[in-house]
Amino acid sequence: MGVPVSGRLGEPERLALMNFQYPAPLKPDAEPNRTEIDVTKQVMTLYIDRQVRLITTISTGSGKNYCYTPFYKTVRVCEDANTPEGRFTYTYFVNAWHRSPLGQLYKPFYFNGGIAVHGYPDVPVRPASHGCTRVPMRVADYWSTLVAKGDAVYVVGKTATTLSAPNVINPKQSALPGTRTVGGVPSVAGQPTTTTGAPTLGPVESTSTSTPTESSSTSTTTSTTEPPPPPPL
């Protein structure tokens, strides 16, 4: 709109709503049922039968570097928070809070390994996640009724960041600056997932010990792929 973000509806916003037009499709020749994630504008558009069904604000990968410890591993992996471009398909949905290495995701629908569209309490108008596509909680409540496993997902645009070199930390080493340590070992929030049949999960962001967290981008290490966790005993 070309006006500062104020969080309030004023005259400029009223005029914009009166003259609203749907955005041009990012992939006009793609499948009639598809999700388009515009990383540049931080907007997600859902098409059903080639018609716009939903447009929502989102928050994708922040581009910041961070570290985590995958499930059932003893080394820490460092990577950049990116939402990779490309064509993907929805693969797995969890109709609940879903636990990941550093926290939980609200009703995630996975489409690229451990990257999902999922609800989150904080969806700023800028990239802020660790790779997932955050949507408002109220949208996550009914998102799974609009899309289905196998539907196409297009991610267009890149996070403004330069990928860091691969970095794996031995647990006996000191943590990187900014990470918390317990007994000289970098601490890891969260416990192994209790959902059987879950997809391979990457890390998720954690802003506090009480805030749910989300899934990660593709790792810059040689390999971070984990097999699905075993079922609970």
The name CATH uses for the topology of one domain is L,D-transpeptidase catalytic domain-like
CATH superfamily placement of one domain: L,D-transpeptidase catalytic domain-like
CATH class of one domain: Mainly Beta
Count of distinct strands: 15
Give a verbal description of the structure:
It is a single chain. With 233 residues, the protein is mainly β. The chain has a domain of 157 residues: L,D-transpeptidase catalytic domain-like (Beta Barrel). A 5-stranded mixed beta sheet has the order 3-2-1-12-6, with no helix packed on it. Strands 7, 8, 9, 10 and 11 form a 5-stranded mixed beta sheet that branches. The C terminus is likely disordered.
Descriptors:
15 strands, L,D-transpeptidase catalytic domain-like, 233 residues, mainly beta, five-stranded mixed beta sheet, disordered C terminus, 29% strand
Please sum up the structure shown.
The protein has 233 residues and is mostly beta strands. The protein has helices spanning 11-18, 137-143; strands at 34-38, 43-48, 51-57, 65-68, 76-80, 86-89, 92-93, 97-100, 103-112, 115-119, 133-135, 152-156, 167-169, 181-182, 185-186.
